[in-house]
Amino acid sequence: xxxxxxxxxxxxxxxxxxxxxxxxxxxxxxxxxxxxxxxxxxxxxxxxxxxxxxxxxxxxxxxxxxxxxxxxxxxxxxxxxxxxxxxxxxxxxxxxxxxxxxxxxxxxxxxxxxxxxxxxxxxxxxxxxxxxxxxxxxxxxxxxxxxxxxxxxxxxxxxxxxxxxxxxxxxxxxxxxxxxxxxxxxxxxxxxxxxxxxxxxxxxxxxxxxxxxxxxxxxxxxxxxxxxxxxxxxxxxxxxxxxxxxxxxxxxxxxxxxxxxxxxxxxxxxxxxxxxxxxxxxxxxxxxxxxxxxxxxxxxxxxxxxxxxxxxxxxxxxxxxxxxxxxxxxxxxxxxxxxxxxxxxxxxxxxxxxxxxxxxxxxxxxxxxxxxxxxxxxxxxxxxx
Length: 385
Known about the structure:
Number of helices: 12
Structural class: alpha/beta
Strand content: 15-25%
């Protein structure tokens, strides 16, 4: 209860809107991940595509083995501010990028045999050891939302079983698959059966296999014991190192978006316009789509007063969802959206010229907070010309 009251107090003191990331909850997540490493001997990387808030890397990097990026910029960030191993996995590389990539990374994952053939010589001739891996597609889908399904029909991600050579080239040190999104370990169990069915003949000659991301390891109902059994059994059968590269699991439920009610408009139901935006500041609300929890709220009409919460851009569909409250909302009220650390800051925009929310570091163990970064006109202006 004290932790919740402290958060409510901070929500009133901080500027609005702001992303507030809780160091104590990051540590809790990372301790769960470290326990998986200790029990299995696997290596765990932070997938920067989900969470790239480098000001907290000195907290996170104590627990993990490095980072994985999908671009040169992410790899630079990981190498400069996180340390450990630096991996890259990208659907396609540009020819003018490879020289810089070889200065940054320890592992390069190729998405096709053609790209691997095009660039492998440059990587192998580098003056530092860089391991080459190949992304595979086990043709097994666990993700319901097409936008986030790496193994859906017509997927461009990974080499399919019928495209694989009879023998892997000797410089291929590992295989990489990524089939999950916000999934429990039973999804990995089913995926591994498909992976082994199609690709197990290669495993005995590999140094490592990367199980990709989408593992919701820090979620309260996640079956960590099953994950550990799956990883350990795989390692024992094939004698390979196993990598996991979650993004969400590091920051899951570890951050909030604080927003303020600017206006309330009468309609079919009352409409509250907030100083934030689904489209600009929490785009997965529209893309996924999903309904983020607002602390103290209920579902539509569950409590006495129901409102449609909306953003303040000109986009007609800038709607978050419908929520109900015990008391009527008023202009100036602060709302706390849960689970806003991952896939928010990395995807947000300045659409309509909206300032990005402040970034605030908070530690619920101590109650202390500080504004890490604020945004203004220059941030909007300088990205356009």
